[in-house]
Amino acid sequence: MTSPQVRLRILHTNDLHSHFEQMPPIASAFRELRAAAGAEHTLTLDIGDHLDRMRPETEGSCGSANRAVMIETGYEAVTIGNNEGLTFTPHELEALYGSDVSFKVLCSNLLDAETGRVPSWGVPYHIVEKAGIRIGLIGVTAYFTEFYRLLGWAIQEPVAVTAQLVRELRPRTDLVIVLSHLGLRNDERMAADIPGIDLILGGHTHHLLEKPLRIGSTMICAAGKYGQYYGVVDVRMDALTRKPVAMEGYVRQVHNGAWAEADTADSADAAKTADAAPDDDRVSAIIRRYKASSDQVLMREVAYLQEPLPAEWYSEAPLGNLLAAGLRKRVGGDLALVNAGQFLSGLAQGPVSAGRLLEICPSPINPCRMVLAGEHILQALEQSLLPEFMEKPLLGFGFRGKVLGMLNIDGLQVEYDSAAPAYSKISRAWLGDELLTADKHYNVATIDMFTFGVGYPSLSKGEQVQYFLPEFIRDILRLELQDTQAIEQSRSRRWHSASS
């Protein structure tokens, strides 16, 4: 005689990065899928980086727009991604998640540095019951130790935390799910090394698993990035033994205000076809309301310019010089380096709003200071003159621009010959009356992105690296725009062509 079975449907998203245009169709799809399976048989989860401060709806509302959408969409538990944990202060996160939230915020490896405990608005794990099935949820986030420390967090090594919590939850639950904002390699590692995990829902590295990975008895799923897809996992549990009988995962594509299958695999109670679900009207209305209120917030004037401040990707321009000078002023240093691609455009004469700064400089990148050998600075300066570096497209690591662009500098003067061979273009570089030499070390004000080996590889070789949080580089720029002397000095050239 066949044992009776209980069905469970798990809906999941990851790394939406405030792509609000994708949220109404996802909400509509989730509503249909939840109705088909029954609310008591459905669990809805987000795996982090739902928020991204590059979008005015998020920046202008300090994340409240995302929270309202998540509540309306019916999420029951979420985990913290690095875009939540590192671009919002602890105070802002408390305001965001501390009240009027209908979902659990899983902070399994994120502790308050003062108390050594999970923040008051989060939980270390969550046990939820669906149709008589007890499900243990663990949520872990990427292990950026130094950045979290500067914000007042004591982040724990996530794999060890997960292993401990699985040991605690396994005897008390029928199904153990890890919401992992750690990236695919770490998910594979946990599946191989930690017994007792039934399902890992992944994110952070933006990987799309159209078909789940299976490692031992663990299944790994992920739904890509930017709300282009969402994921569904259908589970059948033996009602008597309370063990999984079958588990099937698949993703569905979201596009043009409708949603479609991205996997042709047959599934029980599968979702409708591509054009069956319109956008969710209530979620659309929430987004419109927050867009209007956020635009009002971001209209505030932060500076007034008597003349335009141009920005260029491939040649020296005042706005890039101004940011470099601001970085050096903020963190100290002998010189400053920042890539011109941080700006999407320049600033016109007249009032400058907070929203305009967000438009031209959307990256949530932080200042830093490091000690660099002259040879590594010179190598980056040489590369800064090469088209393959200037035109290099970048993704991730906080960068929200288009291309790397050349280096903007402050405290340093560079003489170069654009007609000379690659890596022999710089004739000399000097600080005051002193030539920059290969074997001497210098204090360099720059940006955190370079320390990860992004853009100019030699700039990742710095020592005594110190990060400065919570400021973004647009905060540095905002202060410099209020300094008329700094603006005037930004028009002074730092790159000098030997042939001109």
Automatic annotation (TrEMBL):
CDD domains on file: MPP_UshA_N_like
Superkingdom of origin: Bacteria
Presence of keyword S-adenosyl-L-methionine: no
GO biological process: nucleotide catabolic process
UniProt entry keywords in alphabetical sequence: Hydrolase, Nucleotide-binding, Signal
InterPro entries, alphabetized: 5'-Nucleotdase_C (IPR008334), 5'-Nucleotdase_C_sf (IPR036907), 5'-Nucleotdase_CS (IPR006146), 5_nucleotidase/apyrase (IPR006179), Calcineurin-like_PHP (IPR004843), Metallo-depent_PP-like (IPR029052)
Residue ranges annotated for the 5'-Nucleotidase C-terminal domain, each copy included: 312-449
Record has Cell division as a keyword: no
GO terms assigned for molecular function: 5'-nucleotidase activity; metal ion binding; nucleotide binding; UDP-sugar diphosphatase activity
Domain named Calcineurin-like phosphoesterase: residues: 8-207
GO cellular component, one term: outer membrane-bounded periplasmic space
PROSITE patterns: 5_NUCLEOTIDASE_1
Family, as annotated: Belongs to the 5'-nucleotidase family.
UniProt-recorded name of the protein: Bifunctional metallophosphatase/5'-nucleotidase
Organism: Paenibacillus piri
